[in-house]
Specification:
TIM Barrel, alpha/beta, about 350 residues, Lyase, Ornithine Decarboxylase, Chain A, domain 1, eight-stranded parallel beta sheet, five-stranded antiparallel beta sheet, single chain
Length: about 350
């Protein structure tokens, strides 16, 4: 019915492109949070492991545990560990990114109770994104605490708020300046020198001179880097397909969909597709904002998208029930589809629901 095809050879290509952007000595963290941005985290992790990724990263502890259960041995960072997951995080040999005094103290308490020393941790600073992270005036406190024997400080990092913005970017310049000061303090004070990282996918292309010791890559492995010239170097991994459930004729003036969402301006042929906002195709894609491809012809989505179905105008397209429909993929960018619904590729990809069958092409 509905299928999301994942082309791992395109992941191979994208990995090579990212490696080409950075120095041989620079490490790469593969970010596969949110089920690898709506794909399949297990297949992505195994493929990146084969390609030689240095570390993997997830958002939450449970995501890392799932990878460990599938035999992933690569070090796994947890970006946003929660207080109630610290014990299971340690049991799964995951590496926490600590971003507050309360979290760091709690993690130390767990290590003390378990008699563990030199556990690998990462420290996240807030340099301007204002999401999570230690504020700049906590540097001295962090420096003191990370010298304790319970911890092995693996890396120190922050996150640019607008890494794809045209240079010069006032926001990015200020954040880089803050991070340089943080880095200098840690180099001067740390017992063992941690690695430093600042760049995400867009930053790898836009700020290569600030790649430091490691870069973090997530969406670029899927074929997107938030600017057309960078996207053109990459290949989309995911292709979303469906099939026509029913064709029917609609007379001029008749309505289609909930709330009289679309009025036919003339006699038309409508195709119903078995996919809706429960599968990740939000209502914001309706009302002819977005089209699908049927036999390489564009068919606009008409009216309001339903929970489980949507309708497209296939007038003039030679098609039949059961024919294949493509939403996005190799020849039609998920990014362009996302833009038509006033959103971004991250949301579109990550929102593809579990009813959509994942088919992995090696």
């Amino acid at each position: 019915m509905n299928t999301l095809h994942l082309h791992l050879t395109h992941l191979d290509h994208n990995y090579k492109i990212i490696r080409d952007q950075i120095h041989d000595s620079t490490q790469c963290i593969g970010v596969i949070k949110a089920n690898a941005y709506g794909g399949d985290a297990i297949y992505f992790a195994k493929r990146l492991e084969l390609l030689g990724i240095d570390k993997l990263a997830v958002a939450y502890t449970e995501e890392g545990i799932q990878l460990r259960k599938q035999g992933i041995k690569t070090p796994i960072m947890v970006f946003y560990p929660q207080m109630d997951s610290l014990r299971t995080l340690i049991a799964a040999d995951l590496e926490p990114c600590l971003y507050s005094k309360k979290l760091l103290k709690s993690f130390k308490d767990h290590l003390d109770k378990m008699g563990i020393e030199q556990y690998p941790i990462h420290i996240k600073y807030n340099t301007g994104l204002n999401r999570v992270g230690f504020p700049l005036d906590h540097i001295q406190w962090v420096l003191e605490k990370t010298q304790l024997s319970q911890f092995k400080l693996e890396s120190v990092y922050s996150h640019l708020a607008a890494s794809e913005e045209e240079r010069p970017s006032k926001q990015c310049s200020l954040q880089i300046s803050h991070f340089e000061k943080i880095r200098k303090k840690h180099i001067e004070t740390s017992r063992t020198l941690p690695k430093f990282h600042l760049l995400n996918s867009s930053g790898i292309f836009n700020y290569p001179e600030f790649q430091y010791d490691i870069v973090r890559c997530g969406i670029a492995f899927h074929g997107f880097a938030n600017k057309l010239e960078w996207d053109n170097l990459l290949k989309p991994v995911a292709v979303l397909k469906s099939k026509i459930s029913q064709l029917h004729q609609v007379e001029e003036g008749a309505s289609v969909g909930y709330d009289n969402g679309w009025i036919a301006p003339e006699a038309v042929t409508i195709a119903a597709l078995p996919i809706g906002h429960a599968d990740g195709i939000g209502r914001h894609f309706g009302h002819s904002r977005t089209s699908v491809s049927i036999h390489q012809q564009e068919a606009p989505i008409v009216g309001n998208i339903c929970m489980d179905m949507l309708m497209v105008n296939v007038t003039g397209i030679n098609c039949k029930e059961g024919d294949e429909v493509t939403f996005f993929g190799l020849n039609k960018s998920a990014n362009s589809i996302a833009e038509s619904g006033n959103t971004i590729s991250y949301e579109l990809l990550a929102g593809i629901g579990p009813r959509v069958k994942r088919i992995v092409h090696s």
